[in-house]
Amino acid sequence: MTLPKTPSFRLDDKRALVAGASSGIGLACAVALAEAGAHVVVAARRAEALDALVDEMTAAGMSAEAVALDITDLAATQKAVADLGPFDVLVNSAGLAIHSQALETQEADYDTVTDLNVKAAYFLTREVAKGLIEAGKPGSLINISSQMAKVGGPDRAVYAATKHAVEGFTKSMAIEWGPKGIRINTICPTFILTDLSRVTFENPERAAWIKEKIKLGRPGEVEDIMGAVVFLASDASALITGTGLLVDGGWTAE
Known about the structure:
Layout: E1 15-19, H1 24-35, E2 39-44, H2 47-59, E3 63-68, H3 74-84, E4 89-92, H4 107-135, E5 139-144, H5 157-177, E6 182-189, H6 198-201, H7 204-213, H8 223-233, E7 244-247
Helix pairs in contact: 1-8, 3-4, 4-5
């Protein structure tokens, strides 16, 4: 008998791009990929925060470099990906929420959120895929989505719409690029404790709503995303494409 062998979770000799890496989930994803052996290019608008992150990562024996980038600048994104790629792995954690009741949504807020969460995410993903196709390489592309890609929530009509859109283009891109060996998936977290989410947790009504919905009885932490991103980036998920991996503590189980 020949026993099966577990596919590797290692990412040695892989180049990864993590957008939105200066804090929160993006920062944790960058560290997770680097711990697994990848060389990680961390990207965000805040150059100073990125430089500090790279200093800490390299001091810990990881391989990383920084590039200041606003992915809503499509021309700059195209150039950065072309200059620094091709990338075997993409993690796009750049995202924004401006919450309001649907009847009170301002057009400017709608445009700001959709420009980053949908348009920029779409074209960043496309550029990384283009580089892989030109190089004749397979790859794994991951967009950080949300449980709100599967459900709705109060004050979150615009945000939920953008995350539903990400799920839609993920499925279509998976169909187009699967024959080229390029996989594309999303990670759909529940509420994660970060600096950006603090305002939500400080609202007693919202905090109670979150606690009631998460079946495991606690909000997420960035560490809860780290294993998921390594899994989707690695050969351990070689037959997974066009789907969303829920890391939601059971929120969407009902």
